[in-house]
Specification:
The chain is an all-alpha fold. The chain has helices at about 1-20, 25-40, 45-60, 65-100, 115-130, 135-160, 165-185, 195-210, 215-225, 230-245, 250-260, 265-280, 280-295, 300-315, 320-340, 345-365, 375-405, 410-420, 425-435. It is elongated and about 115 Å long.
Length: about 450
């Protein structure tokens, strides 16, 4: 019995030797399959064979650089082919433009970025670089990574050109990863100056933010901020993201630093304006908007915003004279908007609503009066003031409803104004239009 058991063990051992795969043969067969795929990119079976050979080879000889180079080549082959396809279509388009300026640009909307293959290729080349004993093997691994970075540029730019930001992020960030590998190993970097690397990180950060990739966008913005980047947009972007995450103090600190570094930058100024709008700090907003108007005198949105600021200041004012002064300024800025853009609904409606709301306040005060002689006199005075305010509001509401026929608030105001003017036909007309919206 003992002899039989030993025989079984011996057979098992011999069988294991027989089944062990020769890394050299796997590299040879994988390289052959890879050549078949490169000559015929539709031959996916050949690519699968090459990749399997690479995986089997690395499993059989994990310390041999050549096995990892095969695996890296097998995974990067698909990426190379995609890059060639994109480059070819861009070249054809450039040639077509020479004779037809209206030639349609290439359509990359259906392209699938092989992110899994990209990650596996980087890992394989990096491992091969680490395992390499000979300079030639190390150089081959570095060459594979450098070619991959070049192809990432082609693919990433194609995705950017198609507004596919989520798909552009991977290739663009891969270039940074490969650059980091080269820097770590004292190889010539992909980006040969700090400025070029910073620019790549900036583009990648903006792409991540545009794609809604908050985690990576925050990470890249933070890196650039801490490196005192000269890209002003980073400060405004990073600030708004921090505030959105609930870190108002951190966001404001970033914004202030950006303001110190770029005192004349419009993007940071507008980020400040947005911050003070959310805070309702109308006093600070007033000065910021005036500064913005100096930089962009033709931006009607700024005049509109300043009109809103003075409207809010008038509503907060307790002194009637101060409130009236703010209202006058508000109307002035809204009128400036209308003079530049006669079809601006916001400014038109805002003037009407300011007069209308003041009339409503006076009506409330009037209705709370008693029946004494003095109160009746005040009643008559308030009533006259209300009529004046409604008369001022009416043309703006009429223009507003012509610009937006189904605006509920404008219809309500017109219905009330005409009822007060005893024009019940008009009031009923606007009432019917209001009911139709329900």
């Amino acid at each position: 019995m003992r002899k039989f058991s030993l025989l079984v063990l011996a057979l098992t051992f011999i069988s294991g030797i027989a089944l062990a795969q020769d890394p050299a043969k796997l590299i040879k067969s994988g390289t052959k399959a890879l050549a078949e795929y490169r000559s015929d990119p539709t031959n996916m079976d050949a690519l699968k064979t090459a990749r399997k050979a690479g995986m089997d080879a690395t499993a059989a000889a994990p310390d041999v650089a050549g096995t990892w180079l095969l695996l890296g080549n097998a995974h990067s082959a698909e990426v190379t082919q995609l890059s060639k396809t994109i480059t070819g279509q861009n070249t054809e388009h450039a040639v077509a433009l020479a004779t037809d300026p209206s030639a349609a640009a290439p359509d990359f909307s259906a392209i699938v970025v092989p992110n899994d293959a990209i990650d596996k290729a980087i890992n394989a080349y990096s491992t091969g670089y680490e395992k390499a004993v000979k300079k030639k093997s190390k150089a081959s691994a570095a060459k594979g990574l450098r070619q991959l970075a070049s192809e990432m540029s082609v693919i990433g730019n194609a995705m950017l050109g198609s507004d596919r930001y989520a798909d552009a992020y991977g290739p663009l960030n891969t270039m940074i990863k490969i650059n980091d590998i080269f820097v770590k190993n004292n190889e010539d970097p992909i980006f040969d100056t700090p400025e070029k690397l910073s620019e790549q990180k900036y583009i990648t950060a903006v792409v991540a933010r545009s794609a809604g990739d908050t985690e990576n966008a925050l990470m890249l913005h933070k890196e650039l901020y801490e490196a005192n980047t000269k890209e002003a947009a980073i400060y405004g972007g990073y600030s708004s993201m921090l505030m959105a995450e609930g870190d108002e103090a951190g966001g404001l600190a970033v914004l202030n630093k950006g303001r110190e570094m770029f005192p004349d930058n419009r993007e940071i100024l507008f980020a400040e304006i947005n911050y003070y709008i959310t805070k309702g700090d109308y006093g600070t907003l007033e000065s910021k908007l005036k500064e913005a108007i100096e930089k962009e005198p033709d931006n009607t949105g700024l005049y509109n915003a300043l009109g809103n600021v003075y409207m809010n200041l008038s509503q907060d004012a307790t002194d009637p004279a101060t409130a009236a002064s703010y209202e006058e300024k508000s109307v002035g800025y809204y009128e400036e908007v209308i003079s530049r853009d006669a079809s601006n609904l916001d400014a038109t409606y805002s003037i009407g609503s300011m007069y209308f709301n003041n009339a409503v306040k006076k009506a409330t005060e009037m209705n709370n009066l008693g029946t004494s002689k003095a109160e009746q006199a005040k009643y008559d005075a308030l009533n006259a003031e209300i009529n004046v305010l409604f008369d001022k509001a009416l043309p703006y509401f009429e223009k507003a409803i012509a610009l937006e026929a189904n605006d509920r608030n404008t219809l309500i105001a017109l219905k009330e104004i005409y009822a007060r003017k005893n024009d019940y036909a008009k009031s009923k007309e606007y009432g019917a239009r209001l009911d139709a919206l329900k």
